[in-house]
User: Which sequence fits this backbone?
């Protein structure tokens, strides 16, 4: 691993060395990976941790008395502590391993549908949510007879905080909102939103999928009831995520998936369930993935946050400035407080054509609706092209992106 | 430009993408069907006049990438005046061409879209209008056609 020498002066080249996948050519051009909001690349430390687990320690957890099983269990459970510290949670039992953010939101929405929501209750989300933070709540409302409320966003892609306040009421049981929008890059004032929701007695779930790799998160400072994330957007493996929940809520919510690992005793008459955190972890977990997540957090912990944040912000500022000089380019999402995501459309060119052209320049971006169709509808576009940056991206890569966009524009002009 | 990319975005395709033919809702038609590609959010509506087992007129409107718009535009030109059977046959051959199953499929000037076979993610763009026409001619009920 290559440590940053100066905590105030970020050198992306040092971080890049840790990511072997970045050193390749695509269509004869050096890869410029700008699809980090979809998934980040993995440092060698994560690849090694997963590989080492399978080479040396692979066994099932929480059951064998043999050495490998004890080792696998210790490795996996140590990650719970790592995540607890990473999020500053109060207790390790408040950290539940899931398949990802989507799985974690479904767990909570399903628990609310079966254990909390009644007819006449309300669930409040925002107009900038990913489908994963819309559809589970629609289902929960359909099941329980509760009503889904949606707080509006303005033309810059920022939350309309007044509308959010208006739509909070004593009927609101939970407010579920994203920390950072995947389609727009908007950073929400989550601490204030949490305070407002709590003031009417609503619980709060924050979708942190896009946030955790780009800003430090302190769940106790935020005082949110639930915080959910995916490892793979945090330089870790796919297929694993985290649900942080306040203990009193996790105790109160009914079990989600049932089966092995989450029970205390099973008879054909009735079963009793394991205490937290295992209550919500049915079946053999993604042990290697969890170990990889631990390695990813350990890796990120070696990076100086202030310099990382400043670097990503500079990438966004530079990309935005250059993009504004491209004729016909329209940036979708211009929040004052914004993460390094550049969502845009180009006059006369469909985002999918942009995506294919950029790929031939070696530049990987996402084209489509970003699993946020209501956001696309709000801005009246069928889709956007999206360049999303990570700490290993460079100013040169921003220039490669803009040059590639210019070349697309000329082809279609 | 890279040769594969040039093969995909030939001048004629760019031209049809920029200035699609048979674009816009006609005053009269016997069939109308909507199509949706959830992958990219593209939507198009196809209008056709089918009489005596033949496609008399086809128009479309909607938004899409250059490939889907050009393919829809060229499809409208190609199937007009064809019997429904011939139009179906042409779709089958075109489908084999763009999915790489038969690179020698006889599709006439639609061959210009053959480059799509090297871009698996774009096959749905090239076939969206065709799937819609196919459903329409088979008399499927007026549900939205989806590529997924």
Assistant:
């Amino acid at each position: 691993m290559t440590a940053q020498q100066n905590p105030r002066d970020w050198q992306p080249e040092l971080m890049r060395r840790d990511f072997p996948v970045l050193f390749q050519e695509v269509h004869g051009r050096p890869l410029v990976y700008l699809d980090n909001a979809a998934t980040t690349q993995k440092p060698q430390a994560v690849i090694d941790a997963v590989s080492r687990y399978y080479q040396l320690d692979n066994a099932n957890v929480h059951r064998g008395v043999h050495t490998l099983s004890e080792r696998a269990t210790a490795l996996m459970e140590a990650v719970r502590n790592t995540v607890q510290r990473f999020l500053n949670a109060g207790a390790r039992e408040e950290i539940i391993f899931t398949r990802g953010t989507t799985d974690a939101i479904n767990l909570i929405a399903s628990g609310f549908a079966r254990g909390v929501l009644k007819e006449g209750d309300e669930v409040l989300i925002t107009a900038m949510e990913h489908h994963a933070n819309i559809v589970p709540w629609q289902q929960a409302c359909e099941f329980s007879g509760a009503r889904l409320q949606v707080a509006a966003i303005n033309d810059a892609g920022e939350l309309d905080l007044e509308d959010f306040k208006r739509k909070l009421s004593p009927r609101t049981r939970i407010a579920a909102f994203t920390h950072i929008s995947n389609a727009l890059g908007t950073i929400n004032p989550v601490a204030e939103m949490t305070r407002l929701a709590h003031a009417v007695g609503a619980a709060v779930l924050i979708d942190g999928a896009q946030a955790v790799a780009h800003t430090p998160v302190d769940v106790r400072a935020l005082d949110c009831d639930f915080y959910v994330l995916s490892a793979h957007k945090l330089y870790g493996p796919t297929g694993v995520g985290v649900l942080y929940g306040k203990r009193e809520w996790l105790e109160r919510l009914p079990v989600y998936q049932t089966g092995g690992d989450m029970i205390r005793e099973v008879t054909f008459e009735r079963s009793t369930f394991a205490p937290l955190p295992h209550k919500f972890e049915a079946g053999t977990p993604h042990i290697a993935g969890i170990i990889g997540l631990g390695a990813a957090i350990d890796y990120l912990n070696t990076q100086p946050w202030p310099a990382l944040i400043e670097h990503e912000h500079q990438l966004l500022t530079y990309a935005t400035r250059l993009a504004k000089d491209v004729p016909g380019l329209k940036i979708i999402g211009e929040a004052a407080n914004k993460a390094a995501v550049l969502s845009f459309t180009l006059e006369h060119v469909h985002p999918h054509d942009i995506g294919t052209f950029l790929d031939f320049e070696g530049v990987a971006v996402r084209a489509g609706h970003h699993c946020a169709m209501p956001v696309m509808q709000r801005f009246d576009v069928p889709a956007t092209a999206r360049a999303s940056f990570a700490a290993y991206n460079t100013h040169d890569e921003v220039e490669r992106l803009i040059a590639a966009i210019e070349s697309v524009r000329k082809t279609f002009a | 430009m890279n040769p594969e990319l040039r093969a995909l975005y030939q001048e004629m395709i760019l031209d049809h993408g920029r200035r699609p033919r048979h674009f816009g809702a006609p005053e009269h038609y016997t069939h109308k069907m909507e199509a949706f590609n959830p992958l990219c959010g593209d939507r198009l509506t196809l209008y056709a006049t089918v009489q005596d087992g033949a496609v008399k007129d086809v128009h479309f409107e909607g938004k899409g990438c250059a490939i889907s718009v050009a393919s829809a535009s060229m499809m409208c030109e190609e199937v007009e005046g064809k019997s429904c059977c011939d139009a179906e046959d042409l779709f089958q051959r075109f489908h084999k061409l763009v999915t790489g199953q038969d690179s020698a499929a006889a599709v006439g000037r639609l061959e210009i879209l053959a480059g799509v076979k090297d871009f698996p993610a774009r096959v749905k763009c090239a076939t969206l209008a065709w799937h819609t026409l196919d459903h329409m001619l088979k008399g499927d009920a007026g549900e939205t056609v989806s590529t997924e």
Observations:
- The CA atoms of residues 342 and 387 of chain A lie 5 Å apart.
- The first strand of chain A starts at residue 25 and ends at 26.
- The mean pLDDT of chain A is 96.
